[in-house]
Known about the structure:
Blueprint (H helix, E strand, L loop, with lengths): L1 H10 L27 H11 L3 H14 L4 H13 L3 H14 L5 H20 L3 H14 L3 H13 L3 H14 L4 H13 L3 H14 L4 H13 L3 H14 L4 H13 L3 H14 L5 H17 L3 H14 L4 H13 L3 H14 L4 H13 L3 H14 L4 H13 L3 H14 L4 H13 L3 H13 L10 H14 L3 H14 L4 H13 L6 H18 L4 H13 L3 H14 L4 H13 L3 H16 L9 H14 L3 H8 L1
Helix pairs in contact: 2-3, 3-4, 4-5, 5-6, 6-7, 7-8, 8-9, 8-10, 9-10, 10-11, 11-12, 12-13, 12-14, 13-14, 14-15, 15-16, 16-17, 17-18, 18-19, 18-20, 19-20, 20-21, 21-22, 22-23, 22-24, 23-24, 24-25, 24-26, 25-26, 26-27, 27-28, 28-29, 28-30, 29-30, 30-31, 31-32, 32-33, 33-34, 34-35
Amino acid sequence: MAENNDQNENQNGNNLNQINPNENNFVPVLNYDASNPSSLINISRDFMHLKKYNKALVYITLFLKSYPNSFDGYYIKSQIYTKLYRGNKALVLLNKALSLLKVQDDQDHIQEKKILNCRGKCLIFLKRYDEAIETFNKINSYQEDAKNYLKIGVCYYNKQKIDDAINNYNKAIELNPAYTEAYFNKGICLCNQNKKEEAIEVFNKAIEIANNDAELYLNRGYCYFALNNFRKAIKDFNKAIELRPNFSEAFCRKAACYLEMKKEEEALIEYKHAIEINDLHSKKMLFQAALYVSSYYKKRNNFGEALPYILKCAEYDQDNEDAQFNAGIAQMKLKKYNEAINYFNISLNINRANDHAMFNKAICLMNLEQYDESILIFSLLIQMNKKDFESHLYKGICLKKSGKLNDAINAFTKLISINQDCMPAYLHRGICYTNLKIFGKAINDFIKHSKNKKSENKEITDEDFYYHRSLCYINSNNIEDAINDLNKVIEINANKANAYFKLGFCYLLRKDKKNIVQNLEKAIAEFDKAINLDGKYIEAYFNKALALTSLEKNKEAIEAYNEVISLNPNDVESYFSKALILMKTNKYHEAEKCLEKVIDILNTSKSSFCKNLDNIYYDMSKCKIKLRKIKEAKDYLL
C-alpha cells in the first residue's frame, strides 16, 4: 500500500521538497537548507502530518545520517514505519531510541514513557502480548496510568485470560471512574464469560458516562438478546441506529431479534437495510444477512429477487466455497455463462475436488459452444466416478453438438451399458442415428425411450422427441405415424414453424389418390402457418408453390416462387418452376427471362441443378420458337 502511494505521488510530478502549504490548513517548514541538516527532522514531521509517509521516511533517513545518535530521530522513524504497518522495523527503531536515551531528569522520564508506550503498542500489533504486558508494567512502575492498565487488559483478553483482563480493567476504572473504554472492554469480557446480567450492569454504567456511544447500546442490546429479552434488545439496537444511522451490525442484530420473535417480514426489512448500507467492516454479518434474504425469496420461488443477494453472499465471503458455487448457479439461470464460469473457478480454487462446480462449469462451456473444453471436463469427471451418468450423458451431447456423431453414439452406448434405464441416452443416440440416416436404429431407440420417460431429461423435451421421431418416419415413408408425431409437437408448442412445414410436407407425400386435392389444400394450410411464424421460410414458400401448381392455381404459385426469389435471388429451382408455369399460360416473354436467369446462375455456380441443363435448353428453345426467334432456338437445340 505504502509503495503504491509513493508511486502515485511520483506519477503526479511531486518533488520530495514540494509540499502543498494549503493542504489541511497546514503550513510546513521552509524547504531543506543544506547548511542546516537539523531542518530535515521538521520536514519529515511535516510530511507525516500530510500522511505522505514515504517522503517523511526519506527525510528522516537523511537526518539520521547527519545525527546517528538522535533518539528523537529513531523515534520519529519508528512512527513512520508504524503508519506503514511495518511493526518489526518500528520495534527495532524504538529499542534503538531507548538505548540512546540517557534518563537524567523528569523530562527524560517523559520521553522514555513515550517511547515505551509506542513500544508496547507495537508489540500488541505484533501479537507479542507477554512483552507488551512487561512494557506497560514498566511504565506503571514510574506512575500508574489507567490507559496502561487498559492496554494490559487488552493483552490478557487476546491471550484468552479473561479474569486477568477484567482485573486490569477494574484497575483502570479505579484510577479513572469515568473511563468509558474500560467499562466497555470489561462488559465484553463478562459477556464472553456468559455473565450477561453483570455485563448489562457494566454497560449501564458506561452509558451513564457516555450516552451517545452507539457501540455501548449495541453490546448491551446483544446481552438482552442472549437473555431472550428481545423487546429491550430492539430498543437498544434502535438507539444505536439513531446515534449511527449507517450501523450495519445494529440492523443485523435487530433482524436476529425479529427472527426469534417469528417476524420474518420485519427481519427481512432490517437485513436489507444492513445490506444497502454495505459496511464492509461487518462482512460476516452482512454475509448472514444476504444468505437469509436470498433464502427467503428462494423459498417463495422468487428467484429474480433472490439473485442479487446470492451474488452478495459471494462478495462478502470470497473464501466460502458454497457461496461462490451458488453465485455460479444463479448466473447460469440467467444464461450469463461466462460470469457463472468465473464463480465456479473461484469455488474450484478453494476446493479443486468440487465435482459439482466442475460439472456446472462444463455445462456452461457447452452452452457457449466450447465443446472440446467441456468434453475434457466431463471425461475427467468420468475418470473420478465411472458411474457418473450425467457426465456420460452430457459428454455424448457435446460430441453430438460438435458433429462427432459416431463418437457420440459410442458415448451413449457406453452409458446404456452402465444403466439400461437411462432413457435420455436412447433419445440422443436416436437423434444421432437420424442425422446419419440410419433410420431403423433411430426408430428402435425412440421406441425404447417412449416406453419409459421417467428419467428427467433437461436437454431434450417431449417436443424434440416427437419431432425427431417424425423425421425418421418421414424418411421411412411411414407418413401417417409422422403426421401423428408432428401433431403432438404442435400440441406442445404451437409456435414451432418447422413442425408445420414438415406436416405440410407429409400431406404432399400422402399416397391417397381419392383425396389428392384435400391433401394438397391441407399442405398449403400448414405451409402458410409456418410462413406466418417465420416470414423468411424459403422451403415453406417453395413447397407451397409446388402444391399450388398441382392445384393449377398458377397465379398464386408464381407469387410464392417470387417470395422465394426475393429471399434468395439465386434460387434456380424457383426460376425454372416459375418459367414452366409461364410457358403453360403462354407468357413466353416472361418465361424466357426466367430461363435466361437460370442459365446465368448455372454458368456461374456448381449447382446440382446443372444435371437438368439439357431440359432447360430444350424449354428455352420452345420459348424462342413461340417468340419466333428461330435462329436462337436452333442454338439452344444444338
